[in-house]
Amino acid sequence: MATFVDQVTLHLRAGHGGNGCVSVRREKFKPLAGPDGGNGGHGGDIVLVADPQVTTLLGYHRRPHRTSDNGGFGMGDLRHGARGEDLELAVPVGTVVKTSDGEQLVDLDQPGLRFVAAAGGVGGLGNAALSNPKRKAPGFALLGTPGWEGDVELELKTMADVALVGFPSAGKSSLVAALSAAKPKIADYPFTTLTPNLGVVQAGESRYTIADVPGLIEGASDGKGLGLEFLRHVERCSALLHVLDCATLEAGRDPISDLDVILGELAAYPVPDGQVPLLDRPQLVALNKIDVPDAKELAEFVRPELESRGYRVFEISTVSHDGLRPLSFALGEVVDAERARLAAAQEAAPRIVMRPDAVDERPFTIRVEGGSDGTYYRILGRKPETWVAQTDFQNDEAVGFLADRLAKLGVEDGLFGAGAVAGDTVVIGPGGGIVFDWEPTLTSTAELVTAPRGTDERLNQIGRATRRERREQYYDRMDGKAAARAELDAEREAGIWADDGSDGDDE
């Protein structure tokens, strides 16, 4: 059973933030000593860490679902909730993190690099943190926001200085075993190597790694054989060593034709932007199995043609170890030269400038959408969406606080500018979001509202009368009273009733 996995899908769920607490401190002789609700704790993050001690993604293939801890709830007496513990996942150096759509997020190509793959939710504020001189005893607290939940793709690309390329059974695994202390599987049938094998070579003062990757056949760039499973692990190397079999018994094969096929497949494989094409990297040729008499003659025959193409050619035998020492030192020279070139290029690279967001940049956007059910307005932005997630819509005062925050952010003016009128449908967030009928009157001075805790008078649909309406109502009442008095006087004069209590019929 294979123990090497180089591609896996992780299903991540970061911890949710804890809710804030609504509490009022109570002491003897101080029945209402002020709010003391604590804040909720933040949810734990899920962090990917490049660890050189990890060589495979097998653990995540067996357990792809990972979850970090939630934040604790706030409590009274200003006790804040505990922060959720971060979950650190060790991955091999050379792991590329992508979205489920294939977009690259980060390349963990250096030991110790860290990447937050799933951010934890934000803890909600308690009513103690929400109080101010105008809102002395808030009757609400903010809810914790949910942590990020989704899938990420992990793809491992072997980190090696030299990649051994060649047809199956060309002797690549034997060469790794002869040059280093690695013990790859060696057998006399094709595609013995199903997973990359790494070995460390010490050649004088030079120390480098070599990778024996699965064998290459014609059409590998189109997915034949192990196809892309091979070529993906060649991307990282600084140099290529073509291992050519001089003792093959297959008809129609010879070292020159094998090399041409390999070069064609390497040329057809597209490398990521910014990397050197595979054929433009330093390349050496090793004519293997010269311990066989016929192979020795064939190596001497094809060597001049290979050298005429500009290759440095080495005749080797992994059985008798002939030619391995010169080859190891030649590879060390190539690797040292490439390391010096990369170091110089890194020093000359332009500096990364981090620029803050523009002051006048709007923190939200408003889109006019609609269909057969009519037009509605969708508000998108990190702040509005976060504030909606923090709001307890069962608490009227919390809804009024949300309205004030949106108004200060400029959402009210933005809706007016987009052509919205009172009663139009507004959606905050993507998808279904939070849907409500927009009423501009809900966005004014929540700090000045004197209403019972947990309520907001602005949500009362009965509008407050204006001064003119109150004056008209007063005059109507006065006119009604004057008419009633006139009617009573007329009845008294007519003798219908008298002030002494008689009904006017007594004689």
Automatic annotation (TrEMBL):
GTP binds at residues 166-173, 191-195, 212-215, 288-291, 317-319. It is found in: Cytoplasm. Its EC number is 3.6.5.-. Its cofactor is Mg(2+). Residues 2-159 form the Obg domain. Residues 356-440 form the OCT domain. InterPro entries: G_OBG, GTP-bd, GTP-bd_Obg/CgtA, GTP-bd_prot_GTP1/OBG_C_sf, GTP1-OBG_CS, GTP1_OBG_dom, GTP1_OBG_dom_sf, OBG_GTPase. The keyword ATP-binding does not apply. It comes from the Bacteria. Residues 160-336 form the OBG-type G domain. It holds the Pfam family DUF1967. Keywords: Cytoplasm, GTP-binding, Hydrolase, Magnesium, Metal-binding, Nucleotide-binding. Mg(2+) binds at residues 173, 193. CDD domains: Obg. The keyword Magnesium applies. Belongs to the TRAFAC class OBG-HflX-like GTPase superfamily. OBG GTPase family. Monomer. An essential GTPase which binds GTP, GDP and possibly (p)ppGpp with moderate affinity, with high nucleotide exchange rates and a fairly low GTP hydrolysis rate. Plays a role in control of the cell cycle, stress response, ribosome biogenesis and in those bacteria that undergo differentiation, in morphogenesis control. This is GTPase Obg. The lineage of its organism: Bacteria, Bacillati, Actinomycetota, Actinomycetes, Micrococcales.
